[in-house]
């Protein structure tokens, strides 16, 4: 049951979107200068329908793999990094569908991640969580599993270890539950790890505590706070993102943020496919709940006893009508005398 008008999704997954938008801004500065441009290309993707089995990601992958003659996904993709629920806790879990092979890009990213955390944030616990994809289940646990099903290297970074944690779908997931200091720290960890991987800083002998994002390249507290406030200003119900004025404004604002820093921005609108699991979208944002109060079982027993007693009296009266008639007639005659 989805209570769309009470689901603001601050940590899940407003934190992932906020960090993603900051990564867009920071890496745009690195790519804009020939001297700091890394030997990799980055593609940022923001999809909807995460609470509905990641339908947005699924449709995007299908369109770029099954219905396209040439696709970036067919080229040499090092890995796909998904960000999910990063606004709290001192734990950081790297979720994978299969253990990374030695010398693979994902294994290299994990090593860089451990270096960044151990050198700058030693109190943060980093762990690798391996969970096979259960093809019997109709839904996937993490977004990266959508890519893994198509044999695209991918993983998810999250502060949660259990994908079924109630924190991912709670109506209490509001701004009050967000720790901006920890969310910024997790964003810095992701950014520094990506930079170390893309520039191959470890093999070049750079110090483990080297800071790439500092000064003008630092994360902006005010910007992250504004982004989070905007994301949690309205419930992000998937079925209303293109209907309600406030939701349309939110989507347009996100697109504008991408266009501020990226040269090529494409917006795709997907409709529900009949092949998808049975999901019914309601247009109304809120509905009145009607509650009925029923009598307890003891009342039914009492009512049944009263009915039985009434029927017994009627039956007795009918069976003994002559006797009662004589008694009543005699009583009336005595009173008259």
Account of the protein in words:
With 337 residues, the chain is α/β, with parallel strands linked by helices. The protein folds into two domains: 4-261, Aminopeptidase (3-Layer(aba) Sandwich), CATH 3.40.630; 297-336. Helices cover 42% and strands 6% of the residues. The chain contains nine helices and four strands, in the order ααββαβαβααααα. A four-stranded mixed sheet has the order 1-4-2-3. Helix 1 packs across helix 5 (180-199) and helix 1 packs across helix 6. It is elongated.
Q: Write out the strand line-up for the largest beta sheet, numbering strands in chain order.
A: 1-4-2-3
Order of helices and strands: HHEEHEHEHHHHH
Strand segment count: 4
Distance between the termini: 79 Å
Q: Which outline best applies?
A: elongated
Oligomeric form: single chain
**How confident is the prediction overall: mean pLDDT?**
87
State the low-pLDDT regions, or none.
Answer: none
**CATH fold-level label of the largest domain:** Aminopeptidase
Q: How much strand content do the residues show?
A: 5-15%
Helical stretch tally = 9
> Which class of the largest domain in CATH terms?
Alpha Beta
Number of domains: 2
Helix % is 40-55%
CATH architecture of the largest domain: 3-Layer(aba) Sandwich
Secondary-structure blueprint:
Layout: H1 10-32, H2 55-65, E1 80-83, E2 91-96, H3 105-120, E3 125-130, H4 144-148, E4 154-158, H5 180-199, H6 221-231, H7 245-261, H8 297-319, H9 321-336
Parallel strand pairs: 1-4, 2-3
Antiparallel strand pairs: 2-4
Helix pairs in contact: 1-5, 1-6, 1-7, 3-5
